[in-house]
Design brief:
With 382 residues, this protein is an alpha+beta fold. It has eleven helices and 13 strands. The strands form three sheets. A six-stranded mixed beta sheet has the order 5-4-6-3-1-13, sandwiched between helices. A four-stranded antiparallel beta sheet has the order 10-11-9-12. The chain has a three-stranded antiparallel beta sheet with strand order 2-7-8, sandwiched between helices. Helix 2 crosses helix 3, helix 2 packs across helix 4 and helix 3 crosses helix 4. It is globular and about 65 Å long. It binds alpha-D-galactopyranose (GLA).
């Protein structure tokens, strides 16, 4: 990356920053419904090699994509087509709108996260850019505010109604810890993620997520409608303010079977996060694993964001005795699943699941062991 930077710009980068991706252990499609989620940062992510320039130009290069661009410093920017640099550009735009000044920048990005696979490659590049600007121009923004900035970019610049989970996880992650985040109040705690003889496997279905953004926004809207119907009877702000018993007593007010299913997923998933926290605290991995399977089932049947690829992965995991829990992670519609697998059986797991999946889906998944890492940071001594 440094070589690439030097050959493109004729100098070494002044800084290198890194921002991870994330997996969500449990609590899916909960963040924009005001409930609790349990993500953690992983060791794969996005890097940025960057230097200031005096040319008043923003130069965007990537080692992952051929498109590069050069833009003059302006008072505002808008999204251009579907290109990768919309993410850093959206953050730069937001940074300027917040009243911060910046100089020209020479930038090379590189990511080793599978892109668009449910591991938050977009939150990773957003928070990375916000963190870099904050460090380089000394604006004193906290990591939580950088996460909020990334969410705003996602919602307003990119056009996806996502919640805060991804940006928060990659900005605030801690090695070997899961984050229990209340997405309404932004209160959070770190839970030790000690899984002893198990490892956390990530299985990328390699299924391209077509129409994922529009489906995501559709689910967001459906939750809003279900909430509106329940609000006629209940004094609540979010779907996640409702407990399972209250939901059972009032679900008939929704009057639309699809919206009822969506609400059932959200409210039951929020409950499962609480149970998962207890299980982790008691070091009861068997119960944690069962909650992962239940979460997947709910995402499949009630929220309908899974698909045959993700279901095939989880179906294999259920039949494999050295795996105690698995579920899709992230928005769904393709992308990745996670699984708790016995460490000493991991190689066997990889080859078994690859064969099983290939036979049924026609191509292979990618399987790797995940490390739980720290959030965004600057790399020194390069
Ligand atoms: C995507 C969004 C998150 C969250 C998850 C589903 O990753 O960016 O805000 O809603 O989907 O849990």
């Amino acid at each position: 990356m440094i070589n690439e930077f030097s050959s493109r710009f004729g100098k070494r980068p002044e800084h290198i920053f890194f921002c991870p991706g994330r997996v969500n252990l449990i609590g899916e499609h909960i963040d924009y419904n005001g409930g609790k989620v349990m993500p953690c940062a992983i060791s794969l992510g996005t890097y940025l090699a960057v230097s200031k320039n005096t040319d008043k130009l923003l130069r965007f290069h990537s080692l992952n994509f051929p498109e590069k661009t050069e833009l003059h410093l302006q008072e505002s920017y808008s999204k251009t087509g579907k290109t990768w640099f919309n993410y850093p550009l959206g953050v730069i735009n937001e940074y300027i709108q917040d009243g911060n000044a910046l100089s020209g920048l020479d930038m090379v990005f590189y990511g080793n996260l599978p892109i668009g696979a449910g591991l938050s490659s977009s939150a990773s590049i957003e928070v990375l850019t916000g963190f870099a600007l904050n460090k380089m121009f000394g604006s004193g923004i906290s990591n939580i505010d950088i996460a909020l900035m990334g969410k705003k970019v996602e919602n307003e610049f990119i056009g996806l109604n996502s919640g805060i989970m991804d940006q928060f996880a990659v900005a605030m992650g801690k090695k070997d810890k899961a984050i229990l985040l209340n997405c309404d109040s932004l209160e959070y705690e770190y839970l030790p993620f000690e899984i002893g003889e198990y490892i956390l496997a990530i299985i990328n279905s390699n299924k391209q997520r077509t129409l994922a953004d529009s489906k995501y926004n559709e689910r967001f809207a459906e939750c809003g409608k279900a909430l509106k119907a329940l609000k006629k009877e209940l004094d609540v702000t979010h779907l996640c303010d409702i407990d399972l018993k209250t939901f059972e007593d009032h679900r008939h007010f929704i009057n639309d079977p699809v919206l009822e299913k969506r609400a059932l997923h959200v409210i039951s998933e929020n409950f499962r996060v609480g149970e998962a926290k207890k299980a982790l605290k008691e070091n009861d991995l068997a119960s944690f694993g069962k909650l992962m399977y239940a979460s997947h089932q709910s995402l499949k049947d009630w929220y309908e964001v899974s698909g045959k690829e993700l279901d095939t992965v989880v179906e294999f995991c259920k039949s494999y005795e050295n795996c105690i829990g698995a579920r899709m992670t992230g928005a769904g519609f393709g992308g990745c699943s996670i699984a708790l697998v016995k460490k000493n059986k991991f190689e066997d797991f990889c080859s078994e699941i690859t064969g099983y999946y290939h036979e049924r889906i026609g191509y292979k998944p990618e399987v790797f062991a995940s490390e739980i890492g720290d959030g965004v940071n600057e790399l020194n001594n390069f």
